[in-house]
Amino acid sequence: MTDVVKTINVFALTQKRETPYLGDLREGEHPNKQGYLVRKGNRTVYPIFDRSILVRIETSGGVVGWGETYGIVAPGAVAAIINDLLAGFTIGRDPSDPSAIYDDLYDLMRVRGYTGGFYVDALAAIDIALWDIAGRQADRSIADLLGGAKSDTIKAYLSGLPGPTLKARGEIASFWQDKGFDSFKFATPVADNGPARELEHLRAVLGPDARIAADMHWNQSAQQAIDLIAAMEPHGLWFAEAPVRTEDIAGLEQVCRCIETPIAVGEEWRTPFHMQHRIDRCQIAIAQPEMGHKGITNFLRIGALAAEHNLQIIPHATIGGGIFLAASLVVSSTLDNVSCHEFQHSIFEPNRALIEGNMECENGFYTPPAGPGLGVVPSKKALGLLQPL
Ligand code: MG
User: Could you tell me the distance, in angstroms and rounded to a whole number, from the CA of residue 267 to the centre of ligand 1?
Assistant: First the structure.
């Protein structure tokens, strides 16, 4: 008898943070009663805690798979989409071909324009769980299902310097350089003395050989971005990320045309369509897929599109409990054009206890998990923190 999807359960996984994401709060930044605050530097909302959404799928044969997506705000939105709509069209399906299920679920709301946002986040969580099941049913890792890992490790870059002053941020970077990292990224919205001064200081601290990138958080017009990048370039800029507002494809085209520094974008894309619209027009150098938004199915499709257009892939890593990061590393290990992977120490280190499995990041290299499916499961600690949605 075919082993089919029997149940789907959705949970919030919430953890306290010691230091707020992006570092200490600046003047005028206060959490509201939901625990959400707006960063003045990019006008974007962040929770004061870490939260993601976990999806547990079990088959009629008792195989369990886990998926995960964003839950930083409005976790009930994704839960409602899954519980009210997607579960009913996933239960009873054969999970051995997750991409076919993904496409069927995507089609359900396509005509109404639900081609991104929370809807596609919900799909990503289900997709990761179905791939986990497909691997466990075959008693093979997802990497093996995809033709095998190309290497045992993936180079990591240190992202996020959550210090209150330029000096403190330099000390964090230096601490991680001593631990074996040679590649770094800072966030311009919390570069209080300006991006050029931030990079100048980090360059002085880290030396001429360190690679240093700037995440510009979609916060500029094209001309503002060009000016800021030009001011940073004399200090050696590895890549400039998200230079213009996400909808501003013409602006992105202009930035790519006018500057030499490689441009990196893509964490917020959900589907290959979002990528296609941009690479048709813009000379992007690096695509930064985020597994938590894309799921394995679309991460692979974006990887293939990047290869076709000779783009490097440097995947994004964000607030999560380790499940979508594991998926990102396992799939990245199978792709030829992944040159590096983001490592957010302020998430990975405290949240490492939320998974069981051998996923590590040491000496500037990740070791992707091994074993059937994703190679990781939520730990006892994580299971104790789950709240059903
Ligand atoms: Mg970013």
Answer: 7
24 has pLDDT over 90: no
- For residue 215, how far is its CA from the centre of ligand 1 (angstroms)? 5
Pair (163, 231) in one structural domain: yes
CATH code of the domain covering residue 323: 3.20.20.120
Burial class, 71, CB count within 10 angstroms (exposed 0-12 / middle 13-18 / buried 19+): buried
Distances (CA, A) of 20 to 47, 289, 345, 389: 8, 24, 13, 25
Q: Ligand 1 mean position to 241 CA, how many Å? A: 7
Could you tell me the distance, in angstroms and rounded to a whole number, from the CA of residue 249 to the centre of ligand 1? 17
Indicate whether 195 belongs to any domain. Answer: yes
What distance in angstroms lies between residue 106's CA and the mean position of ligand 1's atoms?
A: 26
Could you tell me if residue 387 is inside a domain?
Answer: no
Residues 228 and 154 grouped into a single domain: yes
Q: From ligand 1's centre to the CA of 279, what distance in Å?
A: 18
Residue-wise pLDDT tens digits, 84-118: 999 999 999 999 999 999 999 999 999 999 999 99
Q: How far is the CA of 216 from the centre of ligand 1 (A)?
A: 8
The count of domains in the chain is 2
Question: In angstroms, what is the span from residue 189 Cα to ligand 1's centroid?
Answer: 11
- Of the residues 112, 140, 168, the one at which a domain ends: 140
Residues 290-311 have pLDDT tens digits of 999 999 999 999 999 999 999 9
Query: CB-based contacts of 137: which residues, under 8 Å, 6+ apart?
Result: 3, 59, 61, 63, 95, 96
Range of the domain at 186: 145-374
* Residues paired with residue 240 on neighbouring β-strands, in sequence order: 214, 263
Task: Report the separation in Å between the CA atom of 4 and the middle of ligand 1, taken as the mean of its atom positions.
Answer: 37
Tell me how far the alpha carbon of residue 217 lies from the centroid of ligand 1, in angstroms. 6
Share of the chain above pLDDT 70, in %: 100
User: CB count, 10 Å around CB of 20?
Assistant: 18
